[in-house]
Amino acid sequence: MKALVWNKDKIELTERPYPKILNLGDAIVKVELSSICTSDLHIIKGFVPKAKEGIVLGHEFVGEIVELGSGITNLKIGDRVSANCETFCGECYFCKRGYINNCQYGGWELGCTIDGCQAEYVRVPFADKGLVKIPDNVSYRNALFVGDILSSGYFGAELCEIQKGDTLVVIGAGPVGLCSMACAKTFGAGKIIAVDIDETRLNLALNLNLADYAFNPRKCDIEEEIKQLTERRGADCVIEAAGGDETFEMSWKIARPNAIVAIVAMYEKNQILPLPQMYGKNLIFKTGGVDAVHCEKLLEMISQGVINTDFLISKEYSLEDILQAYKDFEAKKDNCLKYAVTY
After folding, report:
1. Which of 161, 201, 231, 320 is the most buried (most CB within 10 A)?
2. What backbone torsions phi and psi does residue 329 show, to the nearest 5 degrees?
3. Which residues contact 104 (CB under 8 A, 6 or more apart)?
4. Torsion of CA 36, 262, 292, 16, to 10 degrees
5. What is the C-alpha separation between 71 and 262, in angstroms, rounded?
6. Which CATH superfamily hosts domain 2-145+309-342?
7. How far is CA 144 from the centre of its chain?
8. How many Å apart are CA 231 and CA 236, to the nearest integer?
C-alpha cells in the first residue's frame, strides 16, 4: 500500500506492507479521509523527541473498519468510524480519571511512535476505546476533525471552567482556536474575543459568528482593548492556541486576577513564567496535551447541528499529491486552515 513515511528531516510517499492485527484489541481501518496537522510538521522538524523515524505520519482520520481483533465487541466490520488521536487503554490510573493523553500504555502513538493514518490502511490499538461510530447523518467530511482539532478546541474550553456570561479571549484563530470558540459558545461564554495577526482568520471568526470581537495585536494595544471590554478587569479566561513567540506572555497579561489561562498550543521554544510580575494576580495555568475523551459527545453535537467544522477544510488533495499538500500547508498557501487527504 502507499504510505507517507518520515525519515529524519524528510518525508516520502512509498510502498509499505498492509498492517496486520497484532493484539486482540486492534482494528484495521481503511482510511477514507485524513488531514495534515501542525504537529506533523513539528515531527519533521525534530520538535517531538519521542517520535520514531521510519513511521507513517498522521493521526487525524476517518474511515471504515475492515478487520477486527477477537477482543473487540462494540464494533463490527463495515462500521464508519472517527478515530481518536490518542491511543488509550481505558483501565490504567490516568485513563480512569479521564487523562487519556497520559495513558500508561498509550498516549500520542499514531503517527508518532507507531504507524499513522497517512496511508491506505492503518492499525488502531485499543480500537474499542479509540474508534467511535459515525452517526448515519454525519459524513466523513463532517467527522474528520472530531478526534483531534475539535477535541482540542473542546479541551481548551473545558479547561477554562467557563461560567455563563464569561468573557473569553482566544489567542490564535487557526483551526484549534476556531474550534475553541465554537465549543466555548456551548459552555455559555458571553463575549468571545479572537486575537490573531492574520486578518483573514479574524474575519472568518467574525463571519462565522464564532467571535464577537476580533483584534490584531500588531495594529492595536491588545491589553487596552481587552480592558475596555471588561470594565478594566481583563478576561475571565484565556485560551492560548497560537504558540507564537509572544503569545504566552500576552495570555497572562490580558487575563484578569484569578483568571484561568488554558495553554493548548504546542511551542517550539521554552517559555518564561515571570512569577515576580505575576505575584498577586493569582492566576491558574492549565496546560495540555488534549485529553480527547468527548468524541462520542462531539459527534452527537455535529449530528444535531450544534457544531460544524466543515469550514476548516480549505482544499482536498489525493494521497498521490500529499507531498505537495505538505509544502502548501507549511507555507499556509491561500490562507489555508486544514487540508483533507483523500484515498
Report:
1. 201
2. -65, -45
3. 89, 92, 93, 94, 95
4. 30
5. 37
6. Medium-chain alcohol dehydrogenases, catalytic domain (3.90.180.10)
7. 11
8. 11
Residues 236, 192: Cα–Cα separation, whole Å: 11
Classify domain 153-287 at the CATH topology level.
Rossmann fold (3.40.50)
Question: What are the residue ranges of CATH 3.90.180.10 in the chain?
Answer: 2-145+309-342
Write out the three cell numbers for 78.
Answer: 463495515
Q: Where, residue-wise, is CATH 3.40.50.720 in the chain?
A: 153-287
d(CA 218, CA 220): 6
Question: Exposed, middle or buried: residue 166 (CB in 10 Å: 0-12, 13-18, 19+)?
Answer: buried
Rounded CA gap, 325 and 323, in Å? 5
pLDDT tens across the length of the chain (343 residues): 999 999 988 999 999 999 999 999 999 999 999 999 999 999 999 989 999 999 999 999 999 999 999 999 999 999 999 999 999 999 999 999 999 999 999 999 999 999 999 999 999 999 999 999 999 999 999 999 999 999 999 999 999 999 999 999 999 999 999 999 999 999 999 999 999 999 999 999 999 999 999 999 999 999 999 999 999 999 999 999 999 999 999 999 999 999 999 999 988 889 999 999 999 999 999 998 899 999 999 999 999 999 999 999 999 999 999 999 999 999 999 999 999 999 9
Q: Which helix H or strand E contains 206, and what residues bound it? A: helix 199-207
Amino acid in the structure at residue 25? G
Cell 492485527 belongs to 21
